[in-house]
Specification:
With 234 residues, the protein is an all-beta fold. The chain has one helix and 19 strands. It starts with 13 loop residues before the first strand and ends in an 8-residue tail after the last strand.
Length: 234
């Protein structure tokens, strides 16, 4: 026996049973309709526009880390535009605009018609920025914050899952009882829009992570300190 469905929508989801003429249960089929999402990647802090055409009635938001049965949040409803108040982003003509993207915005965005059918499905993935600095030993380095709108936490990767916290929520940590802090020996200085590391040493090489007040990773700085002549890749 063969079943054929055409033009499937989410309304067709359900459990179907197959029985014989004698009402004997032969099989049970569970149908799940998976929407094909267009994947979009953006960098932390960028701006994003999602197309919302004239025939659109509802824009939904479902965090990509949620269980598939989590109810979506309505970001915008054409018949009740006030629905959007307090949400991330705002309606701009035929698009939905989100400024200063963070990983909080990682989500499936569903645009639906008035009858509930799907017009488009977009998976937004926000990733951290990345910068490489190659410097010579003894030089000074200034690293700018991703923005001045947050109290940044800056960590240095020690091992695969271990970090040394240099700055926590905007405060410089200088615990001289810890060997790794003594290596910086007062060489880290906080600026209004970044940090300065003076008299670079080879041991300063590594990955510095910049996290915002909600612990989202905005920037990874890959610092390579060499003896002798240096080359800049930024």
């Amino acid at each position: 026996m063969t079943l054929f469905f055409s033009d499937l929508t989410e309304r067709d989801e359900g459990i179907f049973s197959v029985s014989s003429n004698e009402n004997m249960l032969l099989d049970i089929i569970k149908l799940e309709v998976l929407g094909c999402a267009v994947e979009v990647r953006r960098i932390y802090g960028e701006r994003y526009y999602l197309d919302v055409p004239q025939q659109a009635e509802i824009l939904e938001f479902t965090p990509s880390s949620s269980h598939r049965y989590t109810l979506p949040k309505v970001l915008w409803n054409r018949t009740d535009p006030q629905t959007a108040k307090g949400g991330r982003g705002q309606k701009k003509r035929d698009s939905w605009e989100i400024i200063q993207l963070t990983q909080k915005d990682n989500s499936y965005y569903n645009v639906r018609k008035k009858d509930g059918s799907l017009l488009s499905r977009t998976l937004l993935k926000v990733e951290e920025d990345s910068i490489i600095y190659n410097r010579g030993e003894g030089e000074d380095l200034i690293i700018r914050y991703p923005s001045t709108k947050s109290s940044w936490t800056i960590t240095k990767l020690k091992r695969d899952t271990e970090y040394l916290i240099l700055i926590e929520a905007g405060y410089l940590l200088t615990d001289s009882s810890i060997l790794e802090y003594r290596q910086y020996d007062g060489r880290v200085r906080m600026l209004h829009d970044g940090i300065e590391i003076r008299s670079l040493r080879i041991m300063d090489s590594g990955v510095l992570g910049f996290r915002d007040e909600e612990n989202y990773l905005a920037l990874n700085v890959h610092l390579n300190v060499h003896a002798g002549e240096h080359h800049t890749l930024n």
